[in-house]
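Why run this: before we spend reagent on co-expression, it is cheaper to look at a predicted model of the complex and decide which construct boundaries make sense. The entries below are exactly what would go into the expression plan.
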Amino acid sequence: MDVREVVERTTDLVTTVALPVEDEHDGDVEAAGGEVLRVRLQGEARARGILSPHAPVDCGGLGLGMVDRSPVFEAAGRSLFGPLALNVHAPDEGNMHLLDHVATDTQRRRFLEPLVRGEVRSGFAMTEPAPGAGADPAALATRATKVDGGWLVNGRKWFITGADGAGFFIVMARTRGEPGEAGGATMFLASADSPGLEVLRHIGTMDRSMLGGHCEMSFTDVFVSDDDVLGGVDEGFRYAQVRLGPARMTHVMRWTGAVQRAHEVAVRHVAGREAFGARLADLGMMQQMIADNEIDLAATRALLMRACEELDAGGRASEATSVAKTFAAEALHRVADRCVQMCGGLGVSSDLPVARVAREIRPFRIYDGPSEVHRWSLARRAVRKYAQQPS
Amino acid sequence: MDVREVVERTTDLVTTVALPVEDEHDGDVEAAGGEVLRVRLQGEARARGILSPHAPVDCGGLGLGMVDRSPVFEAAGRSLFGPLALNVHAPDEGNMHLLDHVATDTQRRRFLEPLVRGEVRSGFAMTEPAPGAGADPAALATRATKVDGGWLVNGRKWFITGADGAGFFIVMARTRGEPGEAGGATMFLASADSPGLEVLRHIGTMDRSMLGGHCEMSFTDVFVSDDDVLGGVDEGFRYAQVRLGPARMTHVMRWTGAVQRAHEVAVRHVAGREAFGARLADLGMMQQMIADNEIDLAATRALLMRACEELDAGGRASEATSVAKTFAAEALHRVADRCVQMCGGLGVSSDLPVARVAREIRPFRIYDGPSEVHRWSLARRAVRKYAQQPS
Amino acid sequence: MDVREVVERTTDLVTTVALPVEDEHDGDVEAAGGEVLRVRLQGEARARGILSPHAPVDCGGLGLGMVDRSPVFEAAGRSLFGPLALNVHAPDEGNMHLLDHVATDTQRRRFLEPLVRGEVRSGFAMTEPAPGAGADPAALATRATKVDGGWLVNGRKWFITGADGAGFFIVMARTRGEPGEAGGATMFLASADSPGLEVLRHIGTMDRSMLGGHCEMSFTDVFVSDDDVLGGVDEGFRYAQVRLGPARMTHVMRWTGAVQRAHEVAVRHVAGREAFGARLADLGMMQQMIADNEIDLAATRALLMRACEELDAGGRASEATSVAKTFAAEALHRVADRCVQMCGGLGVSSDLPVARVAREIRPFRIYDGPSEVHRWSLARRAVRKYAQQPS
Amino acid sequence: MDVREVVERTTDLVTTVALPVEDEHDGDVEAAGGEVLRVRLQGEARARGILSPHAPVDCGGLGLGMVDRSPVFEAAGRSLFGPLALNVHAPDEGNMHLLDHVATDTQRRRFLEPLVRGEVRSGFAMTEPAPGAGADPAALATRATKVDGGWLVNGRKWFITGADGAGFFIVMARTRGEPGEAGGATMFLASADSPGLEVLRHIGTMDRSMLGGHCEMSFTDVFVSDDDVLGGVDEGFRYAQVRLGPARMTHVMRWTGAVQRAHEVAVRHVAGREAFGARLADLGMMQQMIADNEIDLAATRALLMRACEELDAGGRASEATSVAKTFAAEALHRVADRCVQMCGGLGVSSDLPVARVAREIRPFRIYDGPSEVHRWSLARRAVRKYAQQPS
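The model came back. Tokens follow.
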């Protein structure tokens, strides 16, 4: 299917099905039906032939590359529930990407294919409460100990998106070294019903549109067989990088869609109101906010494209994705905040979607690497590059 | 009572009573008990002799001026429920101020005194849905028509804080001229049980700590007797100004307290965490956020003090309060946003109070005059002042 | 010649010839030799086969499109004198572009070819002192009156870059309508020695690297023959648009080079200094500035590329060039300002090139349309686009 | 004399004498006459009885405290040459303050009194080229070695304001410990004609209004007698603090004056121009800049007042002066930059004073402690204060 066709069908699904539900329930995915909503939305996508458009063709996806995903994911992202409908929401979308690159044939059939078909959801269990792995992955404290025929995983995880209701987890655990050492992590595939694996609680967060929440989990002697090791032992951090770059960019795509919608709503709002004898949209301070939104959105998309091209060309694109993610998370939040301001009292209400989008996108400046960590890494890279050069 | 003593007792009340409830219920006043919570908190304040510290002494208050209110309201504001406890929350605090200046003796006894004693809550019904009075008060569309012995009020209001459960309302209605004309408004005192007065719905807003919500209301032939006209007929806009300046400043005081707490929580958070081999609080990017918070808080307080001194000296201080309100609303929101960022994943959760404070304070850039309207007025004033001067 | 080859030769010329002169004279083009410097630098470029790389091949240029110009102009721009060396400085570069599109064959030979060969410089006489054409071109007040065989031009112009020493001018004058009306302008080719054409003074500006300065000029009954009308009568504003989009983008290219050099100098500075027991480059606040520079530079280039692709595809790209110009002018100035800050005392001195770059680039937020005018136009465009859409 | 009277006379001197010279020479103090200008301006101030208003009464000054200095220095600062006229320019003003606190009676007569009377200028020789004392004073590398009857000073200094033409210097040299150790500095009074003391060059800086420039100096076996040690041996860093707090604040006062003038000029500019059919001053984006200027100026003054009150009350006020200096240096630069933008092409020219003020004030974000060092110190203070507190 042509990408434009995928975009068009996505837009139709989002406009006619996802947005009305989102607006009715202020983007609260549980209030809007939770799993029941997911099944219904994904059914609509399946019927339109656009479920899992990024997944490999042999598993039932459309095999879109990064550049092609961009307009599709943005179109889906216009509704907070659109990515769920297309099965391109976090963390499943990134997990599919990772499994496609690393899974064995058996794992592919057992874990990837049902995921692509929307029969199951998954979690990515990496981040841990302090002093474990957070912004600094090397602090990884969850351990996997070798036993006969497999491994025993012990540790605590939190902010595990989608954990409540997930069918299986990709679990990152230390198989060598000590917390603080940058190496020796391994990825494991653990079924949700594994004895010792427990989802403890939903962490209350400002965002409410992620099905399955952001959860705290504990792993107590959770057994994972050797067959369910994902990729090589001690190779976990490397695979995390494989997942990371593209996952950052698909986040940007989705959020660009949500923020673009908020922008359009806000522009329409000021175009329809008068104050002080003028149309709000004709007041200079409003025009400044509108123009700044346009600029921030354009720069976000331009940086995104550049990173996607690099990824499609086979690069790791760590610098380009780091720049694009950091800029986008801040720029899109600025846009959403301006939309709130443009809409005045309605802007902080649930009568319009702008406050909702501002609330949902704020954590993106922290999730997937806080801006500070990205800046730290960009600065070190620049110092290495320029410090020794002659002028 | 010495102001320091009032501050100390307030701090005790906030720390031992208000904060625990706030933290347990993520600042959601309804979830925390609503009216029941108010009665309990105000009982605690009454027992400590600090209820309504700003109210006139003859009505049972402590008669604090603006400069003296400042540390007290800030101490109360450290908890989102602290102002409610002291009976200095919006809109009741501003309504007391207004009634003190404008009410007749009879009105004083019927409306102001019970308010000061915490026996009743009140509303200030001014803002209206488009195309009525919003950022531009001159658009006032609600009308009061003279009838025998009084007035009939008709119109629609929204974003009326505390309306649900209020015992009476100060209603602003047009008694002369047409929407768009800056004059001819009158204030009326209307009991909540007046026939034709209806609280239609809570508008869903991002903030959740205001008892009685932000409501939409309708007035259909609501009769107000001549005795219940507040001040002179057609003088409403002038009284609104009387209320406005101090009300802006007490908002700043309360929010400074809330944001100061968030700042302290965030500083403690980064002082207790390590990443990349260092204490977070020792990383330069964290230090920059901490220092920027300190600067923003100091500048907010310095501008506040200057405006309060001017008000205590009997000035209208429209310029000083406009500057202080605009700066504070933006600066305090910046501080709260940095606190979120400093706390990482926890910063967007309800495990810490920082996301909550960021959510609650955001609307302050819109309520009580959006920043844009204040800037517009400041600019016009500056142009008048400097345009004709020689260089 | 391959673009990479052009870039390489440009880099060599800039590094070995242009930068040493620039550094010795703090970027002051007159102090560095003025016309003598130009002839010397362009001789070096001619010898390397890279003079006028953007000019049409039939005139002696290399015929590079916008995308290909980008790395070449950026490499030239690393030195403030590099664009002059390659004959791609403002306003000559834009004038060549315009003449290439609009000039008759005769005009091409008389005006364009000598320009491409570096035998002459030119001016673009459009902006006028108040109340004439400035940010608002429609205010054009200079008039051309039809006389026998040609036109008489009368008016006053200022901020005419390169005027002092230019061989000819493209003059914009009103041939129909009144100041304030958006139409009726015509372009004229006027030799510098035309009677009545006078360069009155150099306006003292913060930038000092533009050969021929920014001058004030007067036109008193300057005769231009019918043959020297550039394009159609009354078509001037349309041609100005032809010149404008690409000219904005080549400005961005050149300034990106200058700012990139300042960034590298600043990074090297902090990599070589210690304070408070650490290398400056390892302090978080420095890293933040370095990273913000990297992000601003990357976003500038990404937006530039997008606009260049659109131009090369034959589009007018008014929106894309407006976004890119506005973002770049502000972002590059931010970068230069951070470089100043990173270098401390040396940062405000002429011992390093950073203060110089900051000084030279500041006017770019005003020249070629102030940011405010671009924002106004972007906002109006967005309102037209979104105001009527359903949500 | 009443402070208001001092302000009035200062305003008269500035308006009638200083501003015309400044405007004629674009604020270049050497071009405007250098020492000759100083003598003339100070003669005017002497005639008006307002020379050295901050100096102690017994030395011939008016003995104004910090709060009272504020409006006077701001009035002087409206012209870049005003502080020189009143003898309250850096570094002499701070040197008088320091000598008043630390000098012996003999030193007072020999050094302070002629300074107060405007008979001589002085320098404060503290900062050094890398790796010496810069942002980090503890890196002090210049050494004083005890010899019979005095000390021999050896080292190199730079960015010594006013050095060229100064009659004497307060020299900071290490008398104990090694560079990097925070202690063991001593202050010496060295006559400019001391053998071995050499002013090597003016460092070219973006600011041009400081008489005597910012110079590089060398000290080679410069002999200072025991009588010319200023204060106690090894007490130099402590005295530097005495000088520092007030010196920061008087900088703020002076720059507030200069920037206030630029703001008024810019407002008048936009009030007198039209574009796009409206007065520039009535366009929202202009109003936003005007209002932001007003807010930044008001916050600067409010923080300044708070710090001055603390200093007048005898406190060291390190936190308050650090906050005020950092905020002011950034805020006033923002204001100056907005003024440039508001004036368009004229804003970057020497036809108006705004570009000049922007150029002169930029280094203030670096001089007297870069913003980064102040932020670092503010952050550490905050962490100490809040880290151990219970929430």
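The first strand of chain B starts at residue 122 and ends at 125. Chain B has a mean pLDDT of 96. Bring this page to Monday's planning discussion.
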